Amino acid sequence: MKEQEDKGNLKENKPNVNENSKNKQLEQFREDSKDQFMTTDQGVRVNHTADHLKAGPRGPLLMEDFHFREKMTHFDHESIPERVVHARGSGAHGYFQAYDDSLKEFTKAKFLTEPGTRTPVFVRFSTVVGSRGSADTVRDVRGFATKFYTEEGNYDLVGNNMPPFFIQDANKFADLVHAIKPDPDNEMPQASAAHDTFWDFASLMPESMHMIMWVLSDRAIPRSFRMMDGFGVHTFRLINEAGKACFVKFHWRSLLGSHSLVWDEAQKLAGKDADWLRRDLWEAIEMGDYPEFELSVQIVPEEDEFKFDFDLLDATKIIPEELVPLRPVGKMILNRNPDNFFAETEQVAFHPGNLVPGIDVTNDPLLQGRLFSYIDTQLNRFNSANFGEVPINRPITTTHNHQGAGFMRHTINKGKVNYWPNSLGGGCPMMAPGNMGGYIHHMERVEGHKIRGRSESFNDHYSQATLFWNSITEPERKHIVKAAHFELGKVMSKEIRQRMLGHFNKISPELAQRVSEGIGVEIPKNFEPEKSDNNYVADDASKKIKKGKSVKETDFVSMEKHKIETAKSRQIAILLEDGYDYCEVMQVKSALEAAGAHAKIVSKFHGMRKASSGEEIETDKSHITTASIMYDAIYIPEGEEHIKALLKEGDAIHFVNEAFKHCKPIATSGNGIALLQKASVLGIDFADENSQDVLTDSGVVTAGNDADADEFAAAFINAIKKHRHWDREEKMMVPA
């Protein structure tokens, strides 16, 4: 099948001539100081940088010290205002390549329709609420913004790791952010929605209920930026060469699957390694575990705009895949870390209005507001309209216009003409007709009265929240309930908690009852949402949509139902002390690495660990520098003296307890089973220590002394591929 062949070719990860030429254009501003003399910003070589120029060895600084003044002035102005939202981010370079030319039927965007072209990209992942100094693993939406450096100009797909949003109209965005940010009187809490002001806002905003379900789900605490999906959120338009338009939703799907932390892990990682997601992305790329994402689209013909039971322009809604299947169109591979965090990750400036021919916006009222807001916020951050000239933001195409002034102008424009029309400059730069790449906005007929209001078709706030609850598995439901217990448990106002229960009851009486049990208030009777200031107006769209297509369940919202089972890039801790079985360790370690996993040796102290047969292996991490929360699975080899030592180590026992509590795969053999028993791993059937059996129970793999090592390793790898073993949550919990 041609599509499969194209997908396979992308995995070779070899640059082509086209990509190399583009990269040269992007690289022209990079600087490498190796073997170079230090200079000032003016290019003057520096012969001493450790001391001021002074009037005598103990005298005052002389103002003529231009090197000091330049150096200190630059330092004093190194920071730019952080983003109001998405302040904490991590970025990576890579490329996107279309699978085939099948989208030509729908769009003239070349990067989506030319499979031989590799389009350079820069992706920035981020949290939304916290400041630049906040932790990576907080419960939050994650930004997923992609800048495509296409042959026709820059295209920005600025999305999140959740497909709906909190609000329908951008006029409420400032209120949303103010409510979820730290309280204005005491600047607390940081990077958290678990406080009164956010839930007060949400409880008065029924339109937020669908998004609230996603934020309470495991999607809000991803295991890795590499293991989360991305969504364009809004409905956009594709336009083909003939000028015919269709509606489109964009989806990024991680080829490692979408996986999460558990809440206890997320909280502990925030303290033990606040840079957890940032570090994971960086180290994976450095090791060659390049993150891969498949771009898919949902296409809706313009004539089908009103054939659903929701409005396509409502950003709080999704299109269930059962109604409009995903259509894979290409793959993105992130294969290079930034050279300089500030110059690239911090200075990259996205804008959903950065479009290329073949892609256009719709009248989604949230999207329309973003088209203004993103430009405005970049002007605040850079204090100049020339932020597009910063190297990370420059297109790979040449730019020609009359915008030739402003702070920090980089381009030196030649000639005396800086206006249009002109004759002195030969009418240049000229206008480009549509058949020569000129951007043409979709000619949509628009008419109506000036009004502050929304279509009545936006006035359904609960059906898709119910759809989400009905579509997920029981473990996922349990995690939502626990998340609500935490979030609302931090809310001091009983009135706010009760209002939220009223909304949950409209979503699902079962959900409301389960949440009620943990937050100390009863479900209100005859609850009706308080009227907000939304002005919903009956119109033709409302009449057409009311009887549209719908589904009762949609599997794609469930992480568990769409789990990709792989051991690739997983981090495995091997607990070792002196006296372990060297042959078993090496056999299991080799099998793990062959499956694409990474095994790390964890011991009480750094140094060499000696096997019972005399061989030595070097420790990668000590117990004081790491924890089970930093690994996807753990393995304890057999060895009499090694196990005796582990049984005396509280850190090792806690390591096992915690991994078991977090439903991670655990493997051991022979006398290693004694460590599981000492660690109070309960409700699990173990293999007989002296048998040939390999037994797997809820992700715990045990083997007897005489068991086949290959069978044991294969069973462990299969357990790792499942990521978490949620059935273990039903078993007796261990102290951890």
Could you describe the 3D structure shown?
This protein starts with a helix and ends in a 15-residue tail after the last helix. Strands 1, 2, 3, 4, 5, 6, 7, 8, 9 and 10 form a ten-stranded antiparallel beta sheet that branches. The longest helix has 18 residues. Helix 17 links the parallel strand 13 and strand 14. Helix content is 29%, strand content 15%. Helix 5 runs antiparallel to helix 6 and helix 14 runs antiparallel to helix 15. The chain is globular. The chain has 736 residues and is α/β, with parallel strands linked by helices. Among the domains are: 280 residues, Catalase HpII,  Chain A, domain 1 (Beta Barrel); 160 residues, 3-Layer(aba) Sandwich (Rossmann fold), CATH 3.40.50.880. The N terminus is likely disordered. It contains 21 helices and 21 strands.
